[in-house]
Design goal:
Elements (H helix, E strand, L loop, with lengths): L3 H16 L5 H6 L5 E8 L3 E2 L3 H11 L4 E4 L6 E2 L4 E8 H31 L6 E3 L9 H10 L13 E3 L1 H7 L2 H11 L6 E5 L2 H7 L6 E5 L3 H11 L4 E5 L7 H5 L5 E3 L2 H4 L6 E4 L1
Parallel strand pairs: 6-11, 7-8, 8-9, 9-10, 10-11
Antiparallel strand pairs: 1-5, 1-12, 2-4, 3-5
Helix pairs in contact: 1-3, 1-4, 3-4, 4-5
């Protein structure tokens, strides 16, 4: 579970964006300030719940006394029409926070649901499904948490917690070896180093260098299988590129340790949710 101190600033900024300069002029004009109502967050389609805490934070920021009954928590599956949570509180707060809550929760539940689908496709193999840094600016911590709720695993959170030497780094450095040597001379002993390669020749060069993980980029299953044999357990292997529901099983069966998929956080469809008063 994410710490409230991580979630609240994101939700507060989203509410402020929606409330603008004058607040909810529609709701405040129609609904008496003392009106109380009950509403339920419901799923319109099958999916994996994620972002419930963010959604509830939106309501609590506007009505700290709102009463909540959770039927399905983050990480639970929900069928079409299923109730996720029921809220009772100030009607104005429920109506004003509705869109912010559903925007966040629909987005995050969509990511968790897409991750769940990929994870199910690779069952029985050694491969883990991992996310990337292709996240929505400002929402990375929530989106990466949603991947975990879907059964996936997190890649690095940012540029500061692990080294990933990519093709452009190699091009500017003048090769794989000088790139690795320079980074090893600069970083601490606790930092992992991953290097992206596009060819088996690059991989062969890399195997003699002090790295921890190799990113096998845009390789077909045959080349991935050959790469895994070349590595022979000396490094962790990560496959990326052209990862879809249709291709992920074949990629996993090559024996790679991880499969990274950017579309989980940049293109996963929202889960259709509603707030029924």
């Amino acid at each position: 579970m994410l710490h409230p101190l991580t979630v609240e600033p994101i939700v507060r900024a989203a509410l402020a964006e929606d409330l603008g300069r004058a607040g909810d002029i529609t709701t405040d004009s129609i609904i008496p300030a003392d009106a109380v109502a009950t509403a339920r967050i419901a799923a319109r389609q099958d999916g994996r719940v994620a972002g419930l805490e963010a959604a509830l934070t939106a309501f609590r920021l506007l009505d700290p006394a709102v009463s909540v009954t959770v039927e399905r928590a983050d990480g639970d599956d929900v069928p079409p029409g299923g109730t996720i949570a029921t809220l009772t509180g100030k009607a104005r707060a429920l109506l004003t926070a509705e869109r912010t809550a559903l925007n966040l929760m629909g987005r995050l539940s969509g990511i968790a649901t897409a991750t769940r689908a990929l994870v199910r496709e690779v069952e029985g193999t050694r491969a883990r499904i991992v996310c990337t840094r292709k996240t929505t600016p400002g929402l990375r911590v929530l989106e990466k948490h949603a991947v975990k709720l879907g059964g996936g695993f997190n890649h690095r959170f940012g540029l500061d917690d692990a080294v990933l030497i990519k093709d452009n780094h190699i091009a500017v450095a003048g090769g794989v070896r000088p790139a690795v040597e320079r980074v090893r001379a600069a970083i601490g002993h606790m930092v992992k180093v991953e290097v992206e390669v596009d060819t088996l020749d690059q991989l062969d060069e890399l195997l003699g260098l002090p790295v921890d993980v190799v990113l096998l980029d845009n390789m077909d299953p045959d080349r991935l299988r050959r790469a895994v044999r070349m590595v022979d357990g000396r490094l962790l292997t990560e496959a990326s590129g052209n990862v879809t529901l249709a291709t992920v099983r074949a990629i996993a069966e090559t024996g790679v340790d991880m499969i990274s998929c950017g579309w989980l956080t940049h293109s996963a469809p929202n889960l259709d949710l509603g707030l029924d008063m």
